[in-house]
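Input record, target 12 of the design panel.
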């Protein structure tokens, strides 16, 4: 069960945004990721709780940020309920999308589990609902993912298999690269892995 800390920053000007203290692990249903976020000053600023099934579909999502809350799951596409800080109003949304995304590294892992790409796979299009900070506003985005290569790197704990993905935003054409090992993001725009107390978990092969 990897535990560690990511630092999140603005990918354009590198302004520090938050630190995300996380733990995650494969389980009977698939994979679960739980984290707490703090501001650069150390104040609590939100949380992430995401559970995937063995095919990478989000069966439970709970986000908190700036007193806003989102609960969601894969249902008729993806469905969610967003609650305002006062707790008096809740709005429900539904989009014919594949999964959710957002600033947390958890969503990058989730997308790779959903797509199950190989280096021989062609670029694969995916539609996601992104919850944007600081008020978790929903926005539908279309991306294209390609697994460029898989490399094994020697470490003190044995070989570490690293997957390198190219992600393209289909509305702007902007591209970036994501490096993932098991269920840990090693590097991505706006994300740096600062601490990791145990090796990433290896996913078992999902059913066909």
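The sequence produced for target 12 reads:
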């Amino acid at each position: 069960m990897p535990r560690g800390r990511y630092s999140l920053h603005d990918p354009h000007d590198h302004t520090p945004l938050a630190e995300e203290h996380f733990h995650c692990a494969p389980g009977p249903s698939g994979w679960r990721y739980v984290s707490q976020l703090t501001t650069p000053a150390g104040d609590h600023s939100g949380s992430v709780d995401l559970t995937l099934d063995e095919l990478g579909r989000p069966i439970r999502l709970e986000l908190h940020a700036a007193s806003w809350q989102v609960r969601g799951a894969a249902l008729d596409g993806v469905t969610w309920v967003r609650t305002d800080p006062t707790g008096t109003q809740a709005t429900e949304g539904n989009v014919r999308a594949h999964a959710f995304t957002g600033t947390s590294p958890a969503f990058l892992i989730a997308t790779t589990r959903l797509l199950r790409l190989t280096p021989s796979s062609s670029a694969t299009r995916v539609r996601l609902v992104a919850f944007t900070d600081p008020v978790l506003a929903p926005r539908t985005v279309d991306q294209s993912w390609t697994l460029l290569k898989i490399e094994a790197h020697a470490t003190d704990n044995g070989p570490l298999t690293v997957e390198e993905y190219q992600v393209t935003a289909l509305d702007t054409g902007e591209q970036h690269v994501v490096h993932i090992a098991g269920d840990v993001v090693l590097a991505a725009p706006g994300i740096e892995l600062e601490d990791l107390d145990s090796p990433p978990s290896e996913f078992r092969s999902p059913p066909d």
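Helices lie at 106-115.
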